[in-house]
Q: What sequence folds into this?
DNA sequence: GTAGCATGGTAAG
DNA sequence: TTACCCTGCTACG
């Protein structure tokens, strides 16, 4: 259940644990058996994340392309009998990485890797230039909450970071992209970079500024189920941490969106 | 114990 | 728009 920062952390962990050592590669569940057999005993050249896509590069003609989707998981643990449906296991004999329930796990070559990357917009965790994507968002009549989740525009952004950056910048998720100023669009990008970089280092999604933390506001400390402290994500009906207004919930592209109507009012302003 | 939902994306309808 | 992937957690009984 990952946003981009989790995939980047997994890539780091793969490199730190498995790089340049002969690896046992298998598919206990069987659905990746043929491909795993080809890779068994190979060395991992590198692991890399682009948005929510993970590439395990053994060589130019042997790259494992993984996308966890909503329910997939990839966990590291001391080597032991696999439990449940493990699609892919990579092990150095002591530690194992187990992949379960991925949306995608396939063997590809360098050309296909390029094709996948070409479908993705700039990744806030990769020092990419966001200019073209921000300009495209500024021409679109689609809701900004929808644009931020479009991986061809902003790779790696998920529902929580989308929701929280919009709150922090005071922008309503339903505001059309072409009604946002250059500064507002740039500000959203900068905020995604700030939040996601923090998530990459800590492994948690924390978006609440120091002045709004429970401690600063004289409330009980709280840790959400996703492991951090946020302003509005999954807080529908609860008071806004800044103004006390009731947090609202609605659907954008079939996904839940959350916002504070006072801190993020809809408004009619012309671009530029 | 078990129903329901979720940090996502694809493909069928 | 809906079904699915088929994990992992929480809420509920």
A:
């Amino acid at each position: 259940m990952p946003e981009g920062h989790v995939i980047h952390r997994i890539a780091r962990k793969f490199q730190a644990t498995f790089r340049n050592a002969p690896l046992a590669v298998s598919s206990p569940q069987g659905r990746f058996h043929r491909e795993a057999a080809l890779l068994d005993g190979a060395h991992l050249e590198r692991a890399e994340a682009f948005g929510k896509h993970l590439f395990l590069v053994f060589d130019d003609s042997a790259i494992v392309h993984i996308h966890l989707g909503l329910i997939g998981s990839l966990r590291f643990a001391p080597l032991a009998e696999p439990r449940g449906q493990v699609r892919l296991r990579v092990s150095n004999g002591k530690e194992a990485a187990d992949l379960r329930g991925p949306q995608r796990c396939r063997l590809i070559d360098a050309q296909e890797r390029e094709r996948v990357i070409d479908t993705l917009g700039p990744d806030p965790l990769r020092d990419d230039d966001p200019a073209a994507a921000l300009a495209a968002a500024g021409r679109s009549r689609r809701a900004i909450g929808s644009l931020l989740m479009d991986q061809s525009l902003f790779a790696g952004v998920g529902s929580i970071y989308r929701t929280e950056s919009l709150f922090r910048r005071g922008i309503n998720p339903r505001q059309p992209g072409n009604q946002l100023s250059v500064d507002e669009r740039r500000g959203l990008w900068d905020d995604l970079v700030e939040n996601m970089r923090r998530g990459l280092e800590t492994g948690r999604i924390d978006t609440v500024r120091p002045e709004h933390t429970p401690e600063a506001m004289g409330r009980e400390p709280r840790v959400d189920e996703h492991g951090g402290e946020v302003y509005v994500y999954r807080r529908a009906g609860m008071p806004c941490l800044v103004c006390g207004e009731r947090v609202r919930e609605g659907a954008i592209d079939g996904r839940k969106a959350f916002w504070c109507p006072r801190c993020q009012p809809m408004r009619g302003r012309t671009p530029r």
User: Anything to note?
Assistant: Chain A has eight helices and ten strands.
